[in-house]
Amino acid sequence: MRLAPAASIAPSKIRAIAALADEFPGTLRLFYGEDTLPTPDFIKQAAHAAIDADRTYYTPNPGYPELRDTIAHQYHQLHRVPIERDQVVVTASGMMAIHLAVEATVGPGDSALVVTPLWPNFVGAIQVAGAEAIEVPLSLNVDGFHLDLDRLESALRPNTRMLALASPGNPTGWTASLDDWRTLVAFCERHDLWLLADGVYERIVFGSGSSVAPSPIELEAARPRTIIAQSCSKAYRMTGWRIGYAIAPPEVAPTLAFLQEYAVSHAFGVAQEAARVAIRDGDAFLADAQARYARHRDLAVDRLRQIDGVQVPVPEGAFYVFPKLDGLRDSVPLCESLVRDHRVGVAPGSAFGEGGKGHVRICFAVDESTLLDGLDRFEAGWLTFRDRGSPS
Ligand SMILES: Cc1ncc(COP(=O)(O)O)c(C=O)c1O
Asked: Of 120, 324, 346, 376, which has the highest C-beta tally within 10 A?
């Protein structure tokens, strides 16, 4: 029997390394984007209370009204823009927010520009929708990653309907300034594109003196064409809870809500209640988490700078380093040998697009001893791999 075209989409290379790591017990797991610490107690307690209060029935497709109001209020506080409840759709994960946004705006015969290196699920979601994803790489120089408007302009096709990107980015940590967003929004206006802006890491930013990254929603011109994808996974250590949300123009949000009916109907009510409390009461927790990740980032960057043949762009946000390794064209064989021979798992850069091929992604949200041990193992593995003459 013939499967549908979606079945031929490439599986995630991050998951492939994770599966290999499962065969080698003791492998340090620096390939996933999650903290080793558990969900904070105040969030778990909210979930216990929600179970006791029987928040276990079907909920409305766009989520409980109280949670939508809490999200609207937080976005207003953070980004100084009025957001109404009817613009907020609670989704069963950030991935679901991306998926619904894509499903509502692009389809067969359309293309979407994706600023890479980027978490591969954007390209996957666009392909599942039957559209074509066109990669537009950030440029990399000694100061780090930068947006390249010329590349965006020249990647456009007559059938392009959307521009998708994440800021702060996974895996690069590149973070758009408000001026970058102005440029991107003007580009979208000029070519009448939807803007899918992922802000999943917006509360994990370093060195800017702010507790949140700039968002395109702050720009009036962006609002009619912008869908924000958000999640509680990274900010509140809730990766397994599968809870996120989208913020969309009021006339688009109901479409995302009814499309969710045909996937999972809605997010789990208990997770919604936990998210409401996380967002309402989580500011002190977020400040501590941000300080912790800033320390880990500095540790990781300093340690990697001591390793021969490694160039490390300093991430401005999120919790990954994405070093470039001299002479390496495809990092998959290196990542496999790191697991097999050194018991450390990192994600191959090629998982994130063409521009990532000679890189690896290392998550520094793990506890400090795992991080330092992992970087020691990475150094040993990389130098052995390189000295064997393996970079290819
Ligand atoms: C940029 C980005 N967006 C969205 C997500 C999805 O988050 P979740 O589906 O766990 O809510 C991730 C997860 O790694 C991510 O890195």
From this structure: 346
